[in-house]
Design brief:
By secondary structure, this protein is of the alpha+beta class. It contains eleven helices and twelve strands. A five-stranded antiparallel β-sheet has the order 2-1-5-4-3, sandwiched between helices. A five-stranded mixed β-sheet has the order 7-9-10-12-11.
């Protein structure tokens, strides 16, 4: 369990290229390990079998000779006291009678004629447990090491046992393990490098598709004319990567067609709004003028007619303001430059709050200005309109008695204007599109608000601020709403 937990916490490759390379190396490592284990097991079994063959060929001659007495130096070439002929150095022999070892000897590797060997009690017990079946068995003897032994039944009711050391077999197997580990390690390293290069070369078309997709994702696709980057190079369409590249290019073609049609539609709508706003200014002004002229008639006019004329004058005035707003947005969308000269933002803020206090005496207006004047570069009239719209928004959408705080300060190379109120807040479903055109909440923040606008005030704020290379944001929740305008200080570059 602990091993599994550790494996789960190991860092995993994130890219497809790294995963494919890692998978290739892991599969090759498993294959090498399987080949290595099979080779080691097979070699160990083969060499052990050879030892068994040698023991079978030599037979019980050596242990059989031990029952005649101790080996003498004069009998080196073998006699009835100890037959060492055809016996390799290190050969072990023992005679057991009634489960007890009566004789035991070991052929030395040098010219030492002494064949005696000291066996521990554990060694004697291990030898006594070897089955008498004429087959090879591995026995661990503390005094002389691991031996491959074979036991035969003697003619006198005894057990004759001979054995050969396993150390040469173990040394050969260990050498094979070292060689296999080295060779397989080099093979894995070479395969990892070659596999990484091969995978990288094979995934080049996919990398190009990813690079093209990244460039597309960085384009401003929300509005305006968009020029898509060149298509991803297409490879063999019979491969998965080639088919994906072809499908991706077809998708880019559809997206480009859709963006082109959308831009053309936006241009037509923008042109229509500009033309319609321009054409409506004259008749709206004419209606308003005739209504005001009728109100100046010196003769008696019925009250209901007077009221109707007043409503016509008020609505035509409001329609005129809406037409002006639409015309302003159309000009800003067309990219027409605004005036650019130093503007004292401190003075504009002071005048805007004074006008808002006069228009909304039921609200509590608070102004926080810095000691030094804050100057930005831009269009005085449009920036004044930004301030007026923000303050009108706070006044119209909050109940009487709401506290509105206007703060102007500098942060780095930016002028920061904040309009905060402690009203009911902007509904969450309205906040994402609060600066879009014609956005109006179903339930206004001020339930008794009258004179609902067309939903263009904040969109004009956003358009004018963007034209001045600034930003405007809103943060709102019940009891706190803050509109923040950031404008660059100094002259534009």
């Amino acid at each position: 369990m602990n091993l599994l937990r550790r494996l789960r916490h190991l860092p995993r490759p994130r890219t497809l290229r790294a995963r494919l390379t890692a998978g290739l190396v892991v599969l090759l490592a498993v294959s090498c390990a399987a080949v290595g284990v099979a080779a080691v097991v097979e070699l160990n079994g083969f060499l052990t079998g050879r030892l068994d063959q040698q023991l079978q060929q030599s037979g019980p001659n050596f242990p059989q000779s031990l029952e005649h007495g101790r080996y003498k130096p004069s009998d080196r070439d073998g006699d009835e006291h100890g037959d060492t002929r055809r016996q390799a150095a290190g050969t072990f022999g023992a005679r057991l009678l009634n489960g007890r070892i009566t004789n035991a000897a070991l052929i030395p590797a040098d010219d030492d004629p002494d064949l005696t060997v000291g066996l521990t009690a554990g060694d004697r017990t291990a030898l006594a447990g070897v089955p008498v079946d004429g087959r090879g068995h591995t026995v661990h003897l503390r005094s002389i090491g691991d031996y491959r032994t074979v036991a035969w039944a003697g003619l006198d009711g005894d057990v004759l046992m001979t054995g050969l050391p396993l150390e040469p077999v173990r040394a050969t197997v260990h050498r094979l393990e070292l060689v296999s580990a080295g060779v397989f390690g080099l093979a894995l390293a070479a395969a990892g490098v070659a596999g990484a290069l091969w995978v990288r070369w094979s995934l080049r078309p996919l990398s190009r598709v990813a690079a093209t997709a990244t460039r597309v994702s960085e384009l401003p696709l929300a509005s305006g004319e968009v020029a898509l980057p060149p298509r991803a190079p297409e490879s063999d369409t019979r491969s998965e990567v080639g088919r994906m590249a072809a499908a991706f290019n077809r998708m880019l073609g559809h997206v480009e067609d859709a963006l082109t049609k959308r831009h053309a539609s936006e241009e037509r709508l923008r042109t229509f709004a500009a033309d319609a706003s321009h054409e409506l200014r004259t008749p709206v002004a004419s209606v308003r003028g005739h209504a005001e002229l009728a109100l100046l008639h010196p003769g008696p006019v019925p009250p209901e007619v007077t009221r109707a004329l007043q409503r016509i004058a008020a609505e035509s005035s409001r329609m005129g303001e809406m037409v002006d707003d639409l015309l302003l947005l159309a000009r800003l969308d067309a990219g027409r430059p605004l005036e650019s000269h130093p503007v004292d933002l401190t003075h504009l803020t002071l005048d805007a709050v004074t006008d808002a206090r006069a228009a909304g005496p039921g609200h509590r207006w608070t102004l926080d200005l810095p000691e030094d004047p804050v100057t930005v570069t831009g269009d005085t009239h449009r920036l004044q309109q930004v301030l007026a719209n923000l303050l009108a928004n706070a006044r119209l959408h909050t109940p009487v008695g709401t506290k509105v705080t206007v703060t102007l300060e500098t942060e780095g190379r930016q002028a920061v204007l904040r309009v905060h109120d402690d009203g009911p807040g902007v509904p969450k479903d309205v906040q994402p599109g609060v600066f879009e055109r014609f956005t109006r909440a179903e339930h206004r923040r001020r339930q008794d608000a009258t004179g609902a606008g067309a939903g263009l005030g904040l969109s004009i704020v956003a358009a004018v601020v963007e034209a001045h290379r600034g930003t405007v944001t809103v943060e709102s929740h019940p009891g706190s709403t803050t509109f923040t305008v950031r404008l660059p200080l100094g002259s534009p570059t």
